[in-house]
C-alpha cells in the first residue's frame, strides 16, 4: 500500500462531525492512520463526545447519534495524545484542505493548543481527483457521448452539449428518473427541516433557527429581538435572496408556514 517515497511519516485522517462548519461544529469521530517511511502503520481511532447535539440530518449521513457518544471522551481529553500521534507527520486525506484540517485546528484552538500546517506537507486526494478528472461540460460530453465540445463557452453550443450529455446520462444509468418531478428531487433534494433553500435557516417545531456559525441553534426571533447587528449583517451579506426575504418578513412579524408533521 502507498507506493510513494516517504522521508517522514504521513498521517491520513478523516473526521465525522456534528455538521460542516469547522468553527461552529464539533468532531464526533476521528481516525488517523500513520504510515512511516519503512511502511509500518499505526492507527488511532476515537468516538468523541462533541458536547453539543448531533442534528438528525447529520446522523442520517454518518449514523452517529447523541446516545452513541454520550459516554465517549471529549476532544480535550485526547488532544495531547492526538498531537503526539501527529508529531512530525505530513498529512493526507480527502478534502482535508477545506474541511478536516480546519476542523482539527479549531478543536485544538478550543483547548488552548496550536496545530499548524506550516511545517507539514499536505496530500489532498480530492484535489488530485478534480485535477485529473475535470468536472466541466466538455469533460461530461466526452465521457457520456464520446465527442469533443468544440465550441465550448458559446451559449448555444453549451446548451446543445448539455442536452446531449443528459441524453447520454439517461442511456448510461437506467435507474435515473424519467420525469421532471423525480429528476428535480434527485438533483435538488430538499431537507424537510430547512426553512430556506440552502439550510441557513431551519425549522424546529414552529420556530425558525439559525443553522450556521456562532449563533447556530438560536431562534431567528431571539436574534431579531436581541441582536439587530447580526440581523443587519445577514441582510447586507451575500446570502441567497430567499434567506434574506424570510428574515426581512420576520422583522415585520410575517412568518412562513411551518412544515406539516408527517401523519
Secondary structure blueprint with pairings:
Layout: E1 10-17, E2 27-35, E3 41-47, H1 56-62, H2 66-69, H3 75-86, E4 90-93, H4 96-110, E5 122-124, H5 125-132, H6 137-145, H7 155-172, H8 180-187, E6 201-204, E7 207-210, H9 220-226, H10 228-236, H11 241-251
Structure description:
This protein is α/β, with parallel strands linked by helices and 263 residues long. The chain folds into three domains: 10-128, Ribonuclease H-like superfamily/Ribonuclease H (Nucleotidyltransferase, domain 5, 2-Layer Sandwich), CATH 3.30.420; 137-185, no CATH class; 190-263, no CATH class. The protein is 41% helix and 15% strand. It contains eleven helices and seven strands. The strands form two sheets. The chain has a five-stranded mixed beta sheet. The chain has a two-stranded antiparallel ribbon with strand order 6-7. β4 (90-93), α4 (96-110) and β5 form a beta-alpha-beta unit. The model has no long low-confidence stretch (mean pLDDT 91).
Question: Keywords for this structure?
Answer:
single chain, 263 residues, alpha/beta, Nucleotidyltransferase, domain 5, 3 domains, five-stranded mixed β-sheet, two-stranded antiparallel sheet, 7 strands, globular
Q: What does the radius of gyration come to?
A: 23 Å
**pLDDT average, as an integer?**
91
Number of helices: 11
Order of strands in the sheet with most strands: 3-2-1-4-5
Amino acid at each position: 500500500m502507498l507506493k510513494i517515497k516517504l522521508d517522514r511519516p504521513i498521517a491520513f485522517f478523516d473526521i465525522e462531525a456534528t455538521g460542516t462548519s469547522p468553527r461552529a461544529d464539533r468532531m464526533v469521530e476521528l481516525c488517523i492512520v500513520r504510515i512511516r517511511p519503512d511502511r509500518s502503520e499505526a492507527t488511532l481511532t476515537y468516538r468523541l463526545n462533541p458536547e453539543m447535539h448531533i442534528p438528525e440530518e447529520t446522523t442520517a449521513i454518518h449514523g452517529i447519534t447523541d446516545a452513541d457518544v454520550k459516554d465517549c471522551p471529549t476532544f480535550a481529553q485526547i488532544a495531547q495524545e492526538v498531537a503526539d500521534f501527529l508529531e512530525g507527520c505530513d498529512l493526507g486525506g480527502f478534502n482535508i484542505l477545506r474541511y478536516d484540517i480546519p476542523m482539527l485546528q479549531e478543536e485544538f484552538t478550543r483547548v488552548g493548543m496550536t496545530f499548524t500546517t506550516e511545517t507539514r506537507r499536505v496530500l489532498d486526494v480530492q484535489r488530485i481527483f478534480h485535477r485529473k478528472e475535470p468536472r466541466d461540460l466538455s469533460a461530461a460530453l466526452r465521457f457520456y457521448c464520446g465527442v469533443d465540445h468544440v465550441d465550448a463557452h458559446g451559449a448555444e453550443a453549451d446548451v446543445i452539449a448539455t442536452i446531449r450529455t443528459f441524453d447520454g446520462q439517461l442511456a448510461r444509468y437506467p435507474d435515473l428518473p424519467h420525469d421532471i418531478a423525480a429528476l428535480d428531487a434527485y438533483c435538488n433534494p430538499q431537507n424537510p427541516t430547512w426553512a430556506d433553500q440552502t439550510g441557513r435557516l431551519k425549522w424546529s417545531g414552529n420556530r425558525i433557527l439559525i443553522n450556521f456559525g456562532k449563533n447556530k441553534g438560536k431562534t431567528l426571533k431571539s436574534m431579531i429581538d436581541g441582536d439587530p447587528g447580526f440581523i443587519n449583517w445577514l441582510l447586507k451579506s451575500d446570502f441567497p435572496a430567499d434567506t434574506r426575504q424570510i428574515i426581512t418578513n420576520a422583522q415585520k412579524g410575517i412568518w412562513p408556514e411551518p412544515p406539516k408533521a408527517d401523519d
